[in-house]
Design goal:
The protein has 310 residues and is α/β, with parallel strands linked by helices. The protein has 11 helices and 11 strands. It has 3 domains: 8-73, Orthogonal Bundle (Arc Repressor Mutant, subunit A); 91-168 and 274-307, Periplasmic binding protein-like II (D-Maltodextrin-Binding Protein, domain 2); 170-272, D-Maltodextrin-Binding Protein, domain 2 (3-Layer(aba) Sandwich), CATH 3.40.190.290. The protein is elongated.
C-alpha cells in the first residue's frame, strides 16, 4: 500500500481526499479509523491548516486541502516514475505506459507508434486513450495518462510541473458528403458554410471557439452544431447521411474520403492547429517516454513531413 518513495502521511491524506470518507479511506489503506484520524490531525498540525471539513455527506476538502492534493498527486507520480526508471536500469523497461491521443493522431499515427513501441519494449504494456484535448488534459493532470499528444486546448494551463513540446501544425479543412451541394463546382466563399448545419466532436468547445473567432474575422455569425460524436467514424457517417458539414484536420481527409466524404473547395483557408506533446517534467527521464516522443516525430515525418515542427 505504501510506496517506498512516497510518505505515509501523504498516502493517508490522499485516501481521505479521494474517498471523501474516513471510514472508506481507513478500509482502503488498512488502518483503523481512529488511527487514520490521528494521522490527519498530526498532518494538519504540522501544516497549521485545516485540510477537511466534516459534513453529513463526508469529508469535504478545504482550499488548503485542494492545494495539498495537487502537490501530493505530483509527488506520487514522480515517485512512480522514479521507481520505473530504477527498475528499468536493472531489468529493462516494464510496467504500463498510458498514451492519450487526440482524434487526429489516434486515428492516423499513434497505432503505428504503439506497434513500434511494443517491438522495442516487449515487457511494457501500452494503453491508447482517445479524446479531445481538454478531456485528455484532465486525465494527464489527474494521473490517468502519462503523456498526451493533441492539439492546443483553451483549458490547458501553463504549469511548471508539466512540459509542452511543439510537434506539428496542421491546417483544418471543411468536409461534406461527396454529393453535397457545397462539394460541387469551384471555390466557394467561407460564408456559404453557414448555410448548412455543422457536425463536430462531442464536448469540443475549443473547435467552437476557434470557429467563432475565425468566422468573426469575416464578419460572420458563429455556426450551429447540431450533431456531435466522440467517434471519428460515427461523425463522418453523420455528415454523409445528414447533409451537414464538418471541420476536420487535413490529415484526416484521406480516411474521410474512404467513407464518402470530400473536401469543400473554399476561396480562403481556414485556421491551423498546433499539436503538442504534454507530460510531467519528472517523466522525461524515462527511456520509454523518450522513445515514444522520438518515434512519434519520426512517424509524422514519414506520414506528412510538411506538418512537423522542427
Amino acid at each position: 500500500m505504501f510506496h517506498p518513495f512516497y510518505s505515509r502521511p501523504m498516502v493517508l491524506f490522499q485516501a481521505i481526499y479521494e474517498t471523501g470518507s474516513l471510514r472508506k479511506a481507513a478500509e482502503t489503506v488498512g488502518l483503523t479509523q481512529p488511527a487514520l484520524t490521528k494521522s490527519l490531525q498530526q498532518l494538519e498540525e504540522q501544516l497549521e491548516a485545516a485540510l477537511f471539513v466534516r459534513t453529513p455527506k463526508g469529508m469535504v476538502p478545504t482550499e488548503a486541502g485542494d492545494a495539498l492534493y495537487r502537490y501530493a498527486y505530483n509527488l506520487k507520480k514522480s515517485a512512480e516514475y522514479a521507481q520505473l526508471e530504477i527498475a528499468g536500469l536493472e531489468t529493462g523497461e516494464r510496467g504500463l505506459l498510458r498514451i492519450g491521443g487526440g482524434v487526429t493522431w489516434a486515428t492516423t499515427v499513434l497505432p503505428k507508434v504503439l506497434s513500434n513501441m511494443r517491438y522495442e519494449f516487449p515487457d511494457l504494456a501500452l494503453d491508447l486513450v482517445t479524446g479531445i484535448t481538454d478531456q485528455l488534459w484532465q486525465q494527464l493532470e489527474n494521473g490517468r495518462i502519462d503523456i498526451m499528444i493533441a492539439a492546443e486546448g483553451h483549458n490547458v494551463p501553463l504549469d511548471p510541473e508539466f512540459v509542452t513540446i511543439p510537434l506539428a501544425r496542421v491546417p483544418m479543412t471543411a468536409v461534406a458528403s461527396v454529393d453535397h451541394v457545397l462539394a460541387q463546382g469551384g471555390p466557394l466563399p467561407v460564408s456559404r458554410l453557414l448555410d448548412h448545419d455543422w457536425s463536430g466532436f462531442y464536448e469540443d468547445d475549443a473547435l467552437i471557439q476557434r470557429a467563432q473567432f475565425h468566422l468573426g474575422k469575416f464578419g460572420l455569425q458563429p455556426p450551429a452544431f447540431v450533431l456531435r460524436s466522440n467517434s471519428f467514424t460515427a461523425l463522418m457517417q453523420m455528415v454523409r447521411l445528414s447533409g451537414s458539414i464538418a471541420i476536420i484536420s487535413d490529415i484526416l481527409v484521406e480516411q474521410a474520403e474512404l467513407m464518402g466524404i470530400c473536401r469543400i473547395p473554399l476561396d480562403a483557408p481556414l485556421w491551423s492547429l498546433q499539436t503538442n506533446i504534454l507530460l510531467r517534467r519528472s517523466a522525461l527521464s524515462l527511456k520509454s517516454i523518450q522513445r515514444c516522443i522520438e518515434i512519434t516525430r519520426m512517424a509524422i515525418s514519414h506520414h506528412r513531413p510538411e506538418y512537423l515542427i522542427s
